[in-house]
Amino acid sequence: MVLTPKDRDVDIEIVGNVPKPKMAEKGTFIERKWRVDESPPAAEEPDSPNPREFLPSVRVGWGINLEDTLVRFVDAAVEETPLDPRLRKVARDIVGKIPPAKKDERARALYRWVGEGLQESNETDGRRAITGRAGSRQAAFMYSCASSGSRPSSRS
Fold first, then answer.
1. β-bridge partners, 134
2. pLDDT, tens digit, for every residue of 113-139?
3. CB-CB contact of 103 with 153 (8 Å)
4. Which end of the chain has the smaller Cβ count within 10 Å, N or C?
5. Of 80, 82, 32, which is closest to residue 59 (Cα–Cα)?
6. Is residue 155 part of a domain?
7. CA separation for the pair 68, 71 (Å, rounded)
């Protein structure tokens, strides 16, 4: 049984032999009930397919679409931590003699610096990892790349 708001489009995914739902209005909601009788048991045999692929089941969802999902992924991927001018100077000093057009070489120089100068630990903030010389090398590397301009960034 599932109660869903009347004013929402509902996505219903049915697997297996599931009959049409019995529907009833309950105020501002719609009640849907599915019942599967005499479903065969799932025999567990070696190398058999996962029972979820063929046993009767119903999945219900709403409110998720490609556009909103992409917006959430972009928000999660975009780094909005402000760049510290002191750390920017450190990163630019490391790559200072390498031309800006050679982004791979600049990134390699930062990678070597982070690998040699930082001890791996639980700190996940790239800024604190660099200043404390201990933390996530990945976070420190990404922050150093952004600070030096060695990778595309929305920040300058």
1. 119
2. 999 999 999 999 999 999 999 999 999
3. no
4. C
5. 32
6. no
7. 5
Q: Which domain holds residue 39?
A: 2-77
Q: How many domains does the chain have?
A: 2
Report the alpha-carbon distance of residue 135 to residue 121 in Å, rounded. 4
**25/66 same-domain check:** yes
Number of neighbouring beta carbons within 10 Å of residue 91: 26
Give the pLDDT confidence of 82-103 residue by residue, as tens digits. 789 999 999 999 999 999 889 8
Examine the pLDDT at 26 and tell me if it is beyond 90.
Answer: yes
Tokens 């928000």 correspond to 75
What is each CA distance from 5 to 35, 54, 98, in whole angstroms? 21, 29, 60
Same domain for 55 and 17: yes
